[in-house]
Each structure stands twice: as C-alpha cells, then as structure tokens.
Amino acid sequence: MINPAKIFKLKGLWSQFNQNHPKFSQFLNTVYQNGLKEGTVFEITVTTPEGKTINSNMKLTTSDIELLRTLSEMSKE
Asked: Structural domain boundaries of the chain?
C-alpha cells in the first residue's frame, strides 16, 4: 500500500524541483503535448562537475507510457 505521507512529501519535492528548474517542466509538458507513442526514444546525457559524460537511451513501451500518464495525472491532483 502506498504511504500517503510519502506521496505528500513527493509532491512538495516535485514542487521545489519545478521552482528550481522551470525549463525542464516546460520541456516535459511540450513532449507530453506532442503525444507520446510506443517506440518514442528518450535519450539523456549527464555531465558530472568533473566533465565526465554518461549517456543512455530507452525506447518507450505501452506500459512505460501508461506509467508516465498515471504520474502526470497524480501530479495534477
């Protein structure tokens, strides 16, 4: 069972994250509005303060899209 207190804490942390990084939330909204489809590829690159680069990608499945939609709906509650 999901702990309501942890969900409440997560909502607060997400709110703070959005305040710290408003362009990222705008980016996610744009991606979501353009329609996520099975086969869409997400790619991410991380650069550490030392300059090391790490990257990866994933191709979305139907279950991935359902998870993202559910999280999106939860964030609006």
From this structure: 1-34, 36-77
Q: What is the pLDDT along the chain (77 residues), one digit of tens a residue?
A: 778 888 888 888 988 998 999 998 888 888 888 878 899 999 999 999 999 999 999 999 999 988 888 877 776 66
Evaluated on CA atoms 17, 68, 23, 58, the torsion sign reads positive
Closest CA to 22 of 12, 10, 14: 14
**25, 76, 56, 20 alpha-carbon torsion, rounded to 10°:** 40
* pTM, full prediction: 0.61
Q: How far is CA 34 from the centre of its chain?
A: 15
In one-letter notation, the amino acid at residue 62 is T
